[in-house]
Design a protein that fits this description.
Helix content is 33%, strand content 20%. By secondary structure, the chain is an alpha/beta fold. It has three domains: 11-74, Winged helix-like DNA-binding domain superfamily/Winged helix DNA-binding domain (Arc Repressor Mutant, subunit A), CATH 1.10.10; 79-175 and 296-320, Response regulator (Rossmann fold), CATH 3.40.50.2300; 179-293, Rossmann fold (3-Layer(aba) Sandwich). It has a six-stranded parallel sheet with strand order 4-3-5-6-7-13, with helices on one face. A six-stranded mixed sheet has the order 9-8-10-11-12-14, with helices on both faces. It has a two-stranded antiparallel ribbon with strand order 1-2. The longest helix is centred in the N-terminal third of the chain and has 14 residues, at 11-24. The protein starts with 10 loop residues before the first helix and ends in a 5-residue tail after the last strand.
Length: 327
C-alpha cells in the first residue's frame, strides 16, 4: 500500500483513507493482518501517535479490530457511499441531513454536485467505479438516462428525483412532475377558484421537466382558467390583479412578492402565489407562501434505508399542495 501525503489532508485522515481504499479494492480482506504501530510508523514515515489515532478511528468505524494475540486486522468491509446530487438548495440540504442522520457511523458519504453538466456527471460516475460500495444518484436529466450509469451494478445504484425514462432494472425514489402537478392543483381548486388566470413562471434555462407545462395547460383547460406561460425573463411586466402565479425558482418567487408589495396587490387576495418545493422560510413570508412539494427529508431517509439494507425499492413519493395564506 502506497501513501501520498498532501497539505490539504491530515496524515491521520490520509492513512485512514488509504486503508479504507485498500479494503474497498480487496487488496486487504477480512481477516488480513495490518502492520503493527511501530512497523506502520516506519514504513509510512509518520509518528506512532498518528498511526495509533488512525487505527483507533478505523476500529471505531468497524473496519479493523485488534487482539493481543493477532494484533491489528481487517474486521469488516468498508462502506463508502457516493451521493451525487444536481445542485445545492435548502431542500437538498434537508435531503442530505436526513440521509446522513440515518446512516451508521461506519459509512463514509462523499457528497458531490454535478450542476446539470452532462460531461461532469459522466466524468464523476466513470472515475467512481469500484471506489464505492453504494451509489445514490440524481440523474442530470428527467427524460434521458445516462448510459454511464450502466457501469454501476444495478443492486448498488439508487436513482433519485428525476425519472421519466426506462428504469425498471434499477431501484429509484422519484417524484412525478406531471400528473402529480395536475392533481395538486386540483386538490386546491377551492382556493384557486378565486383567481381568473393562472400564470406558470417557467424560465427557458430552467432544468425543471418541461413536460409539466402540458399538465398545467390541461388543468387550466379542464377547469376553464385563462392561462399564461412565462418563459422569457425579459418579457416580465409585473404582477397582474386576479392572477395566480406558479413559480419554480426562489428568484421568481421573490420577484413576485416584491412586485405585489410595490403595486399594492394583497397576496392571497388580489393575486395568488404557489412555489415549487417547500422550504421552512415559506411559512414566515407574509401570511405564508403555498407550495407544491414532495418531502425531500423522507427521500433522504428512504435512500439511507436502501443503502443500509440493499433491499430494492421503486417508489414515487407523493406530491402535495401545502395551502398557506398566499392563495
Amino acid at each position: 500500500m502506497t501513501i501520498k501525503y498532501t497539505n490539504a489532508t491530515s496524515k491521520i485522515k490520509t492513512l485512514i483513507d488509504s486503508i479504507n481504499d485498500a479494503v474497498m479494492r480487496k487488496d486487504l480482506r477480512v481477516g488480513d493482518n495490518l502492520l503493527s504501530i511501530n512497523e506502520a510508523s516506519t514504513k509510512y514515515k509518520v509518528s506512532r501517535d498518528t498511526v495509533f489515532k488512525a487505527y483507533n478511528e478505523l476500529k471505531r468505524l468497524g473496519v479493523i479490530d485488534s487482539t493481543p494475540q493477532k494484533g491489528y486486522f481487517v474486521k469488516g468491509e468498508v462502506n463508502r457511499v457516493l451521493l451525487l446530487l444536481d445542485t445545492y438548495s435548502p431542500f437538498k440540504k434537508d435531503l442530505y441531513h436526513r440521509f446522513a442522520d440515518n446512516i451508521p457511523d461506519n459509512y463514509k458519504v462523499d457528497l458531490i454536485f454535478h450542476q446539470y453538466n452532462e460531461h461532469l456527471f459522466e466524468t464523476i460516475i466513470g472515475e467512481s467505479i469500484g471506489k464505492y460500495s453504494m451509489y445514490v444518484v440524481m440523474n442530470f436529466s428527467n427524460d434521458k438516462f445516462s448510459e454511464t450509469l450502466k457501469l454501476i451494478p444495478a443492486g448498488k445504484l439508487l436513482l433519485l428525483d428525476f425519472g421519466d425514462f426506462e428504469k425498471s432494472d434499477f431501484s429509484f425514489i422519484c417524484q412525478d412532475f406531471n400528473q402529480a402537478l395536475y392533481d395538486s392543483l386540483k386538490n386546491g381548486i377551492e382556493a384557486i377558484r378565486k383567481f381568473r388566470k393562472l400564470v406558470f413562471v417557467f424560465p427557458e434555462d430552467l432544468r425543471h421537466p418541461i413536460s409539466s407545462i402540458q399538465y398545467f395547460k390541461q388543468f387550466c383547460a379542464d377547469f376553464e382558467f385563462e392561462y399564461q406561460i412565462d418563459r422569457k425573463k425579459t418579457e416580465w411586466r409585473g404582477v397582474e390583479n386576479g392572477c395566480l402565479y406558479l413559480c419554480i425558482t426562489t428568484e421568481d418567487m421573490v420577484k413576485i412578492v416584491k412586485d405585489a408589495n410595490q403595486s399594492g396587490c394583497k397576496l392571497g387576495n388580489e393575486i395568488g402565489l404557489i412555489a415549487y418545493n417547500d422550504d421552512p422560510v415559506l411559512e414566515i413570508i407574509q401570511n405564508g407562501i403555498s407550495s407544491i412539494s414532495i418531502d425531500f427529508g423522507l427521500m433522504g431517509e428512504k435512500a439511507a434505508q436502501f443503502v443500509k439494507t440493499k433491499n430494492p425499492i421503486q417508489e414515487y413519493l407523493p406530491t402535495k399542495l401545502i395551502v398557506r395564506g398566499s392563495i
